[in-house]
Amino acid sequence: MYVQNIAGDQILRRRRPLRSDQEMLFSRGFSRISRTSLNRSRWLFSFQSKREQLLPSAHLQSPLDSTNTVTAGGCREPYCWGGSSFHAIGRQIHHQSSSVVEDGLDPFLLVENELSILANRLRSMVVAEVPKLASAAEYFFKMGVEGKRFRPTVLLLMATALNVHIPGPPSEKVIDALSEELRKRQQRIAEITEMIHVASLLHDDVLDDADTRRGIGSLNFVMGNKLAVLAGDFLLSRACVALASLKNTEVVSLLATVVEHLVTGETMQMTTTSEQRCSMEYYLQKTYYKTASLISNSCKAIALLAGQTTEVSMLAYEYGKNLGLAFQLIDDVLDFTGTSMSLGKGSLTDIRHGIITAPILYAIEEFPQLRAVVDRGLDNPADVDLILDYLGKSQGIQRTQELAAKHANLASAAIDSLPESDDEDVRRSRRALVDLTHRVITRTK
Amino acid sequence: MYVQNIAGDQILRRRRPLRSDQEMLFSRGFSRISRTSLNRSRWLFSFQSKREQLLPSAHLQSPLDSTNTVTAGGCREPYCWGGSSFHAIGRQIHHQSSSVVEDGLDPFLLVENELSILANRLRSMVVAEVPKLASAAEYFFKMGVEGKRFRPTVLLLMATALNVHIPGPPSEKVIDALSEELRKRQQRIAEITEMIHVASLLHDDVLDDADTRRGIGSLNFVMGNKLAVLAGDFLLSRACVALASLKNTEVVSLLATVVEHLVTGETMQMTTTSEQRCSMEYYLQKTYYKTASLISNSCKAIALLAGQTTEVSMLAYEYGKNLGLAFQLIDDVLDFTGTSMSLGKGSLTDIRHGIITAPILYAIEEFPQLRAVVDRGLDNPADVDLILDYLGKSQGIQRTQELAAKHANLASAAIDSLPESDDEDVRRSRRALVDLTHRVITRTK
Asked: Is pTM beyond 0.80 here?
């Protein structure tokens, strides 16, 4: 099932939260409440072992492998929670935020220098022999169009958060050399992840006939579809060569599977039946493949390179998965609520392309008559307006934000479940990772 | 340099062969001359160590990394040979053919059963979760399987040709188990190679003009292109997962580099300056990337999995490279001489798309005034007709066939340079590989 069978869900399965709770949760100003350190959310899961709650049931677990399916459109039990327990989540995120405020640290600033090195390396890694291919491949790695650098930030923070002292080596020098080598290998994962991400963007833009990306002309628009396809292939092949150089076939396999997930997610979005388009389960599965698989599996790769246990590797995976899902859910909200400028690609993009996301799925639950409008295909702008009217009347936006907050909390709880460490760098990186879960759900662009 | 610095070239660097020699070489009926076994072409290279001659200078050596460049268009010394030495090549191939006739073996029949197993495995390897993606991946696969099955045949024959008795294990049973395991891993290489090949075909087929694509407006047509991109990505990711499962990072790196070469070759073809379009060096480099890199590097992968020495691995690579180049040169000839039916994609495809291949490059050498016609872009059918007139008057077709024959001989010589074996299976597979070099240059479709 998508809604994982963890104790927290039992608390969370209520009706919608009060508006005041929601406002508190999503407001950007937070009062300074003293930090509860790494224990801050433990009360929520106190009656069950956290690791038991958080460990997924299988390798590369899909968020949907369950029998307790959740379908919007009035056919099944709606997926919802709220009220007082949501208030609790609000408080919890409140605490996380204040801890970061105390630190005075920005997660992006923590790894700023390393990100610059990484950006330079990326530019050198995508140099191609043929000038046209080189300029196509470099296109999104140029200064100023690198995007938010969200993924490399997460991965570098995760690398530090999982730092363990390697026992046994004879001297400090050996420890330093080993640590440095490991860090370099983990940086490679961050670079490879960016290459896979950009390759998928290039191919997606061809598929969508997109004309802009990151505020500039999309590559297919500027250089043609064929070159965009080739540049994407080129990045994938370079990523694969870089992966092979890490000489860890489990990691190669993990990230190759991510490429397959990206393709599967894109195909799922392109080829839906009416039933699938209105299914929350299908939507979440697709979202995992399209967005969460890359970050979750690369987090896991960071842990595997560090020689972490299966348990810790899966916590890293869980963090990435839930952060990725939260990120996409908020993206889907912003597609309705943001402005064209803040979204960078124009508001209402999904709905105008007939893509049904969580806010509409929740709206359909409240107003089942919308299903017929969706089934007509949304080619008619009047139908899009009708959908938007109903969305405004519904709790769709709010409930999507709540779902995002739930995943943000699960991500945060995964970090809390890591083996304790008294290393201040490790603790600071963990706090930054938790802070990111908050930023993801409160962002406005 | 492209023309490798081997003794054979010194003999071969003459003017054009007599027409009677050429007819002898390319006729399909061969008299039965007694086979000279694996020594049949040694006289040609007798004054220099064969291995020294054939070993390329570097890993993944490009056919062009030389200073002795060869440019068509009248600027440089033309690249040609012929006369009596070509007669010798004719005789040499004559011998190869008769050896196979004596065996009564068809290279494809030798691995027929294994090819069927491989085809079934391939179909199961490309099964996808999403029905549309599954049918796209499978569909193009079925087409590939019904094709020549040239690459898997070469690779399975190469696997047997490089068989060595593993010394040391305690019992026959252990030897059998190890051999069986190795064979399975080598079969995986053949499957992966086919997946990469089909993926590149799918992406090559994507239309490059976005406006034309949108202009057609047919949903099926657009879906076709989208699915071509996605199915190609899917096959690449499955190939990468399969590669990772072999747990040999050198092999992963080798085949990832092939994908990069395929992309580079395609981009070289798409983005040429006038100078590059009329350069034989550029043409051959592009041909290596687009056609020869896949088969040469997968031959090398077969050798690496078998634990062969660097020297033997490079001979396998040399065989694949020269066979691939010969194959493509004949393809370029058939684009002019074949009928639409025998080519399977309509004659004159390249020239009508403004792609200049070896026959025209040789024609330009003889008639430099053609260069201006080529520079006009070949959009005008009258210009295409003019080019064809000159091609008919020139030795372009003949010299391309000669170049193909030279590469076929180099491929054959690489097989002859393998360490001797008295295993009849090994010897038969080597003869079949040599026979393939002949079939490649005498084929009419």
From this structure: no
CB contact under 8 A, B257 and A237: yes
- What is the 3-class SS of A50-118, one letter each residue? HHHHHCCCCCCCCCCCCCCCCCCCCCCCCCCCCHHHHHHHHHHHHHHHHHHHHHCCCHHHHCHHHHHHH
- The shortest CB-CB distance from A244 to any of B130, B223, B253 is to B253
> Which phi and psi angles does A361 have, rounded to 5°?
-60, -40
The DSSP symbol for B207 reads -
For chains A and B, what is the number of CB pairs under 8 angstroms?
A: 151
Amino acid identity at B423: D
Nearest Cβ partner for A270 among B226, B247, B262:
B226
Which of A130, A245, A246 best tests the B interface by mutation, with the highest count of B CBs <10 A? A130
Q: What is the DSSP letter of B290?
A: I
Residues 99-128 of A with CB under 8 A from B: 128
**Closest-CA residue to B230 (of B260, B268, B203):** B203
CB contact under 8 A, A241 and B226: no
Tokens of B140: 């193009």
**Mutation to test the A interface, candidates B230, B285, B286, most A Cβ within 10 Å:** B230
Contact B210 A229 (CB under 8 A): no
Q: Which domains, from first to last, does chain A contain?
A: 1-104+276-445 (1.10.600.10), 111-247 (1.10.600.10)
> Cβ contacts (< 8 Å) between A241 and chain B: which residues?
253, 256-257, 260
> Residues 405..444 of A with a Cβ closer than 8 Å to B: which?
none
Partners of A213 in beta bridges? A216
Q: Based on the number of CB atoms within 10 Å of its own CB, is A315 exposed (0-12), middle (13-18) or buried (19 or more)?
A: buried
Token pair 């991946």 in the structure block, residue: B137
From chain B, the residues in CB contact with A237 under 8 A are 256-257, 259-260, 263
* For testing contact with chain A, the best of B216, B252, B262 (most A CBs within 10 A): B252
Joined together, the tokens standing for residue B21 give: 């020699």
B-chain residues near A234 (CB < 8 A): 260, 263-264
Backbone dihedral angles phi then psi of residue B54, each to the nearest 5 degrees: -95, -20
Please list every residue in chain B whose beta carbon sits closer than 8 Å to the beta carbon of residue A243: 252, 256
CA Rg value for chain A: 22
Task: Show pLDDT as tens, one digit a residue, over chain B (445 residues).
Answer: 333 333 333 323 333 333 333 333 323 222 222 332 323 332 222 223 333 333 333 333 444 443 333 333 333 322 222 223 333 333 344 344 445 445 557 888 888 889 888 888 888 887 877 887 787 777 666 654 456 788 999 999 999 999 876 555 557 777 788 888 899 999 999 999 999 998 888 887 775 443 332 233 323 344 567 788 888 889 998 998 899 899 898 999 999 999 999 989 988 988 888 889 889 999 999 999 999 999 999 999 999 999 999 999 999 999 999 999 999 999 999 988 875 444 334 368 888 888 899 999 999 999 999 999 998 888 888 888 898 889 999 999 999 999 999 999 999 999 999 999 999 999 999 999 999 999 999 987 7
**A221 interfaces chain B, CB cutoff of 8 Å:** yes
A155 min Cα distance to partner chain B (Å): 22
Instruction: Return d(Cα B230, Cα B224) in angstroms, integer.
Output: 10
The token duo for B378 is: 């070949």
Q: Which residues contact A369 (CB under 8 A, 6 or more apart)?
A: none
DSSP count for chain B of H helices, then E strands: 23, 0
Each as own residue / partner, the long-range contacts of residues A336-344 (CB below 8 Å, 24 or more positions apart, any chain) are: A336/A388, A336/A391, A336/A397, A337/A397, A338/A444, A338/A445, A342/A444, A342/A445, A343/A445, A344/A212, A344/A214, A344/A215, A344/A445
